[in-house]
Amino acid sequence: MAEEKKQLLIVTGMSGAGKTVVAHALEDMGYFVVDNLPPTLLGSFWDLINNSNDFHKVAAVIDLRVKTFYRDLLDEVNSLEDNGNVQATILFLDASDDVLVARYKETRRLSPLANNGKGRLLDGIQEERHILTPIKNRSNYIIDTSNLSTKELKQKLINTFSDRKRQPFSIEVMSFGFKYGMPIDADIVMDVRFLPNPFYIPELRPFTGLDKRVFDYVMNKKETQVFYKKLLDLLETAIPGYIKEGKEKLTIAIGCTGGQHRSVSIAQQLARDLAKKYPVDITHREVSRYIRK
């Protein structure tokens, strides 16, 4: 099998144009990302990467935070390529002046060319554009983020740089007990404490919703069947909207008092039904509390 060729992506551009968002998105796509790398260290950094088998897709974020060193960026890229070490890809992020001004005011951060907060913000932005013109002209990709939402910017990166053009969507169905605390990472929480409780059936009390006797008791109740049909219909209506909005994983938490009977039974059935259309994992957070050892 041929050795996978290592990739170097250099992310640069106007301050405030979205480099932090891009860095996080690239990490999610499997890139090893180094932020605020001085250009003079680019050669040494790439030698280190080349001598490691741990990294194959590498991104270096380089911008005017490195001050005067930034002017060395083109020379360093040319040196790498002249030596045959790597064919670097440069991504330049841009945005209009009015959008950059608005972003600076919203975050209350200073331009890297700001003179201790003195002088006009717009003058600093225009000076930055002048300094960045040579690297912009050399860039392989230019993305204007002025009118892009975070989700749209991430999808554009996926379309351009990811091996998978669309991130996979998956669902986790979780059962839990309210008396042990609500799961903080759930997107949807459904309380099923209103359903008939097997806890009050002595022969069912020791078991969990993983036991067929408990499962059948919960699921065969008329009120459960009415509720479950509406719940499944609700989720099947909502899930395509989550996917459209760029959601990659949806966590649905079903809770009862102790997380032993009702929530486990509902979660089991829900996982089976949703798995007909989507990848589904199931977690029963409290079940281990009730399993006899």
From TrEMBL:
InterPro entries membership: P-loop_NTPase, RapZ-like, RapZ-like_N, RapZ_C
Positions of the RapZ-like N-terminal domain: 7-162
Transmembrane segments: none
Keywords assigned: ATP-binding, GTP-binding, Nucleotide-binding
Binding-site positions, ATP: 13-20
Recorded superkingdom: Bacteria
Binding of GTP, residues: 63-66
Coiled coil: none
Domain RapZ C-terminal positions: 170-287
UniProt keyword Nucleotide-binding present: yes
GO molecular function: ATP binding; GTP binding
Gene3D superfamilies attached to this UniProt entry: P-loop containing nucleotide triphosphate hydrolases (3.40.50.300)
Family annotation (NCBIfam families): PRK05416.1
HAMAP family, sorted: RapZ_like
PANTHER family linked to this entry: RNASE ADAPTER PROTEIN RAPZ
Designated name of the protein: RNase adapter RapZ
Gene (name only): rapZ
